[in-house]
Amino acid sequence: MTIETQLPAEGNVGGHVFDVDSRTGFMPPKPPIPRLPAMWEDWESMLDLAIAAKLKCGDQVGLTPEDAANSETWRAQARKMPVLPVNSALTSCPILLRRAHLVLTFLLHFYVQTLPIDAPILIPRSISIPVLRVSQQLDIPPLLTFSDTVLYNWEFKSPPITPDAGEEAPALDNLRSQALFSGLVDEEEFYLCSARIELRGVEALELMRQTMDEMFVGDEIAVRRISGYLQTMVGVINELKTLLLDVRKQCDPERYYSLVRPWFRGQDSDLKKRKWVFEGVKEEEDLVEPTELSGPSAGQSSIVHVLDVFLGVDHQSKTPDKPSFMSRMLTYMPRNHRLFLKHLSANPRPLRPFVVSTQDQELLECYNKAVLALKEFRDAHMIIATLYIIGPARRAARALAAKDAEIDSGHEPTPPGKDREPLKGTGGTDLVKFLKDTRNRTGATMIPSST
């Protein structure tokens, strides 16, 4: 079953065209396949080996010579792996392509992040060529994305009682991740937190559809109904905020910062600003050097973008030739989800101008409450970012400064933040500035009351 309600002259709001399901939203209605067919078993086997070897990032504190040797042994095996074909058997099946992208990008990040911190990054042909080809088919960048870690990386803890009924969304407490870098529950909880938000956000999609139906009618009864839908929307967004904050229950900030987050880094978050070189790309006429290489980010979540578009939050860049971070993150979403957002953005009857035009005080108040709820969701995101990234980063900087002072006692330690680059998110942006700007733009969307 899919969201396929027809709007006069506008087409459908969701549905199979956009891969938006009425039960699971932007997540697939059934668990993604757990393994590729035998033809691509070498990829799956290499991923199994990496996970079983408990590989560690090349810059992890306390990395031993044994750890480094363990990683190099695995990388040597990866380099010897044959360049498996990305043929029509793979490219004609979206389900296989998505699994291939997940496996190959996990292999890519295992390879890159286990390298010594000063080593050049040359991604072997066995990984580079297939990941570029698969990514080309999916029209997404050739590295780990939110869709790889969340949307297509889940399965049931236990089989649902009525697996073929097809009438209910997966229970939020009956999910687990298929692939992890660290094997830690902290990493899994980080992914599942986002998965639960995606699933709970499905009700918001239905409220949007109902609202758009009523806006087409536009009479007094429709205005009353829209007010009711927006009141319900406030409750949904508040629940999304609660789910976001619940990540604290099983994800430890220090373990996340030091043992999980480093695996996500893309080229633009590399500590040494190293360029990722994809071996063999110049020899393939139909492949090009990738330019978008930011790691997975919550900014790649379609449900959050949908709420922004629906409520009229403007994240457009003020610099004409430089796209905003939120606009750039669209590139990392599954193609059909991008099409859905484009379709929603092209709606000739946007909600915010409709609310202004009605001059209805109740509707205005309900709309502003929904925008405020979204702002508070972003406030919660800042709390999580401070707890899991900003705080640990500052503590790590203080520890480094103290260590520097011990080594060279003739110099004062560098205070945290001084002469250091701004802290970057996994999406490659200045994290603190981005979060504050996004929250402020959301708050600025509220409509001033005329009374």
Automatic annotation (TrEMBL):
Keywords, ordered alphabetically: Heme, Iron, Metal-binding
A Pfam entry, by short name: IDO
Zinc-finger among keywords: no
GO cellular component terms listed in the entry, alphabetical order: cytoplasm
Domain of life: Eukaryota
Compositional bias segments (type: Basic and acidic residues): 405-423
Name by which UniProt lists this protein: Indoleamine 2,3-dioxygenase
Naturally occurring in which organism (per UniProt): Candolleomyces aberdarensis
